[in-house]
Structure formats: structure tokens, C-alpha cells
């Protein structure tokens, strides 16, 4: 399996966490990453996103169908993230939150329970079963 | 500081390991990675290479002066790599060109404190940086890119 963890881009503050929208900077980050992803993704992949608006907006930049999975909402455990991905075959993109995605990456790559930092709008591309290989990491600011 | 650990690109076979040269494909890999890095690195950075020809040739693609460090030859320990880089206190960016599994072991140690080695494809690099946030020292992986993704 190939699993791409994509942290939502820069978002506005807001009292309702689920309703926070991307800032203009965040929209640019999402668009730049979407462009990079389109150039490198296989023809077939599944895009799964947290129901939070900032994750949905980030995913929408890719212009593909979005499967919204409530189990990816902020606070998702590594097991929940892996389970959400394994509902689908082939290459799966998961758009979600920190520290959730960083915990999942640490678990899959190093089998540790630490919180790896993933920058806003960045992707971590993992390949293979645990221990997964890190195939690519791209920060929005380096695009 | 910013630290880029760059594995030499694809090389020819040769009885003398330190003299193996890049293949044509390897030279292209090195060029692609160098272009990517030159667009994103600060104007001033330090470039350090293993003495092996395939590493030195890879480093040359950046077109800047190369410091050759004998301790980065194949078999380098994580400590040798981390010391050569001046991690974590060097002010600025350092590019180290070297070998597997040496770089992958240093990476695992820097990022997770584990043994590794982490996989690094030929011609690929890892870009990590350190920072202090809320009093905690953090290591951030900023980019991992292999030539087939450039």
C-alpha cells in the first residue's frame, strides 16, 4: 500500500474548530501541493479527508472526488487513520490533522509512539506495510 | 540549522569501491537533485562530501566548493556524520553527500533516536531542520525527495 498523509494547509482561527477555513496563504499552499501531487500520483488513487472544513478545502484543491471519513476528525488515533486508509485499495491520500498524522507516521515507519512534526500543507508519502518506507516528504514552502 | 543528507547517485561497478564513477543516469539524477536544491537552499551553504568519487561527482552538480571529509567514507558512523555536519549548533545550511546505510542510520538517530537504517534511494536526499518550540528541541523533516520524483 502507498499512503500519503497530507496535513491541511494554513487555516484561520475560529471558535468552531470544525468550521475553520483556509487563509489565502493556506489556499496557495493547498494549490501548490495539489499541483505537485497531480504530477506524481498514479492515475488511480483514493482521496479521503477529515470532515473539518480546512481539511475538506485542502483536499478539494486536488480536484478529485473526496471520500469524507468522520473517523479522521481532529483527535484520530494512529489505528483509526490506518483503518480509514485500509478501507481502500492502492494509493490512498489521507487529509487530516496534527498531531494525529505525525503519530500515525511514527507508528508506521518506526513503530514508536512519538509525535512527528508535519508542517501545515505538507505531505508524507509512505510505501509498504509497517515498517513503511518514507518515499517522499514535501513541505508546501519548498514547492 | 538545516541539514541535507544526500546519497550519491547511481554509480558504475568497479573493483575499487572508492573510485566508482557515476553512470550517465547517475549524472542526470545528481543534476536534477542539484537544481531542486539550488532553488531552495539559502544563498550560502556548506557542502561536504565523502572522499568516494561517486559522492564527489554527485556533490559537484551543485557547482559550489566542496569540502572532502575522510570520515564520511563508506562505513561512516552516525556520530561521524553528525559531527561533520556540526549538528545541532551550526548556523546555516549544510549539505552532506555520502553513502548508505550510513546516512539512513544517522537520519534515524536524528529524527527518532532509533537505529534505522532508513531507506534512501540513490540520488535522493533528506532535508531536516532543528528548532526549539515551547522549550522542546524538535527535529522537522522538511523534504524527502528522490530523483524519480523530480
Structural description of this entry:
The complex is a heterodimer of chains A (143) and B (150). By secondary structure, chain A is an alpha/beta fold. Chain A has one domain (2-142): Rossmann fold (3-Layer(aba) Sandwich). Chain A has 4 helices and 6 strands. Chain A has helices at 24-40, 53-60, 78-86, 100-110, and strands spanning 2-7, 46-49, 66-68, 91-96, 123-127, 133-138. In chain A, strands 3-2-4-1-5-6 form a 6-stranded mixed sheet, sandwiched between helices. The model of chain A has no long low-confidence stretch (mean pLDDT 96). With 150 residues, chain B is an alpha/beta fold. Chain B has a single domain (2-149), classed as Rossmann fold, CATH 3.40.50. Chain B contains 4 helices and 6 strands. Chain B has helices at residues 24-40, 53-60, 78-85, 102-112, and strands at 2-7, 45-49, 67-68, 93-98, 125-133, 136-145. Chain B has a 6-stranded mixed sheet. The longest helix of chain B has 17 residues, at 24-40. The interface between A and B is medium-sized, with 18 and 19 residues.
SSE topology sketch:
The complex is a heterodimer of chains A (143) and B (150).
Chain A (H helix, E strand, L loop, with lengths): L1 E6 L16 H17 L5 E4 L3 H8 L5 E3 L9 H9 L4 E6 L3 H11 L12 E5 L5 E6 L5
Parallel strand pairs in A: 1-4, 2-3, 2-4
Antiparallel strand pairs in A: 1-5, 5-6
Helix pairs in contact in A: 3-4
Chain B lengths: L1 E6 L16 H17 L4 E5 L3 H8 L6 E2 L9 H8 L7 E6 L3 H11 L12 E9 L2 E10 L5
Helix pairs in contact in B: 3-4
